[in-house]
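Reminder: ligand-aware prediction takes two inputs, not one.
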Amino acid sequence: MSKTTINTLHQCKQNQHKFSVVTAYDATFAHLASSAGIDVLLVGDSLGMVLQGKDSTVPVTLEHMCYHTDAVKQGNQGALIMSDLPFMSYSTPEQAIDSAAALMQAGAEMVKLEGGAWLVETVKMLSERGIPVCSHLGLTPQYVHKLGGYKVQGRDDAAAKQMLSDARAMEQAGADLILLECVPSTLAKQLTESVNIPVIGIGAGSDTDGQVLVCYDMLGMNPGHIPKFVKNYMVEGRTIAQAFEAYDQEVKAGGFPAAEHGFKA
Ligand code: KIV
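Here is what comes back for the chain with 3-methyl-2-oxobutanoic acid:
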């Protein structure tokens, strides 16, 4: 199986080929998802909610993230592994370097951090030191208490302009990817077209370069509220491997997400 690298994702953007991303937290799911052709495994701090049962990602620690990154690395069959820097592990550039180094040594090939322009110096320093970075914009779950809940972001003109400017600032600082969560589909399209680096969406419509879902959501293993951007692939008697394959194929063919999975401005 060929290895997905940051270059592969840049080529996808250039050639207008969509790529697929799911979260993974352990070796078994990493093996199944990457063998099914999924391009990127995100060791998301969503593990605080889906594995640990917490009500946000805030309690997740760097130690938790390193443990799960190492497990995913053991099962991975060629996908690119991206791991979240958890809450308060990158509040200064120096702290970010130490935290990112720990994740990279545990098996990450890229780190993801939440926030806009205030992270320019941090992204620059990480990038200059050989650490690929994904900038997470839009609904940033580590900010849930500041945002007052899990709400669609960028709906008014000022917020949309700020997000576009943050995306350009992140690209200029050296970010390799952008992840957009829960933003209007029209804004996600405009933002994707305005940067040269690949953009991954979740609840961001069908025009981003890649799509991500939390694996427990797309396998129908969510006992609580199902967000409108989720599609359950564990249907028609599929095995887990077949569900991952169906998701991968639909994303790459442009069949997922459909209009009904997106948000209006
Ligand atoms: O932690 C996570 O799983 C994420 C996704 C929701 C994109 O950041």
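Residues 23, 42, 44-46, 84, 179, 181, 202, 212, 214 surround 3-methyl-2-oxobutanoic acid (CB under 6 Å). The first strand starts at residue 19 and ends at 23. We will return to this case in the review session.
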